[in-house]
Amino acid sequence: MISSFPFEIADGLYVLGNKHFFTFLAIGETHALIELGVSATAPLVVTQMAVLGIEPEKVGYLVVPHAHFDHLGGLPYYQAFFPQARVVCSDRARKTMSNPRVLEQFFKEDDVTSAWLEETGKGRRIYSWLPGAALEAEMIVGDGDVLALGQNNTLKFIAASGHSPCSLAVYLPERETLLVSDSLGFFLGPEENFPLFFYNYDTYLETILRLSRVGAVIVAAAHELIFTEEDATGCFNVAEEAARKLYRYIYAFQGNREELMAELYHRYYHNGLRVYSPQNIKACVELLVRRVKDSGQASTG
After folding, report:
1. What residues contact residue 215 under an 8 Å CB cut-off, 6+ apart?
2. Which of 7, 84, 203, 270 is the most buried (most CB within 10 A)?
3. Cis bond before residue 131 (omega within 30° of 0)
4. Superkingdom, according to UniProt (predicted)?
């Protein structure tokens, strides 16, 4: 379900950015931007909002579902363009965003990805973060918290900590739409998934199950794919099965760790993941291997 950008997926809910990095615009008496992508997509999003006739002063919230570089990279640009908007995130995300040393690493990776986007005509490379600066959050939300935008549009936050301990999913009940961020992993295709249990494998599976029970008719990842109708149910099964298969494969692998990581890197580094640097994906694979090996137990699934 990808159209030319921007496009509307439900009444008063638009998808901006590009297929690699979605930013969602929820319309109300006060508008909210959800998922802030990387710095290179921020100017594109602002241009798309102008095409839609959005008044900048009506943007009241900038929602960071979790504090990884590809979900907050556009934040400094948006803060400058929408100075009245409040940054919304979990308390753990706030702590990460307040750490300049972490942000320095984030924005180094943001620059690599932004350069790729500019080279391929999919964004504009900008430098919006000042070294040493922290990113402030004005509104802390957690599981079950609700943010009413007006005009029958509400954001309900759901703890989704399997990918990252700071992660939140965002449910729009009036639209029956669930924004899962990276909680279901990275979809390389409708039936192909790169699991992202960076924090904890068991919690990752629990998160997938919990989100599947929301009953959304539209499920939107932060990258590449948006699922509707039967696919909105099936995507949870795809994500769960991919995680279980990967866990079993890593646990049973007989070679050394370097061979395993090289094999997994070559297995997954294609399609949408090419927007990230090889070093980034190698680090992701290493983290997944560590999570399985450190658990010391076979998957029960």
Report:
1. 176
2. 203
3. no
4. Bacteria
Q: Encoding tokens for residue 183? A: 């909680």
Secondary structure (3-state) at 6 = coil
Same domain, residue pair 284 and 174: no
Q: Residues 160, 211: contact at Cβ < 8 Å? A: yes
This prediction's pTM: 0.95
Residues 286 and 217 in one domain: no
Q: How far apart are CA 175 and CA 189, in angstroms?
A: 25
Residues 271 and 234 in one domain: no
Do 14 and 158 lie in a common domain?
yes
* Token duo for residue 153: 């549009």
The full length of the chain comes to 301
Residues paired with residue 17 on neighbouring β-strands, in sequence order: 22
Per the structure, the complete domain to which residue 140 belongs is given by 7-241
- Residue 234 banded pLDDT, cuts 50, 70, 90: very high
Domains: count for the chain: 2
- Provide φ and ψ at 181, rounded to 5°: 55, -125
Same domain, 153 and 181: yes
Determine the 3-state secondary structure of 66 from DSSP. Answer: coil
Do 41 and 158 belong together in one domain?
yes
Let me know the angle formed at the C-alpha of 269 by 177 and 229, rounded to the nearest 5 degrees.
20
| Sign of the torsion formed by the C-alpha atoms of 18, 166, 184 and 143 | negative
pLDDT in the model for residue 299: 56
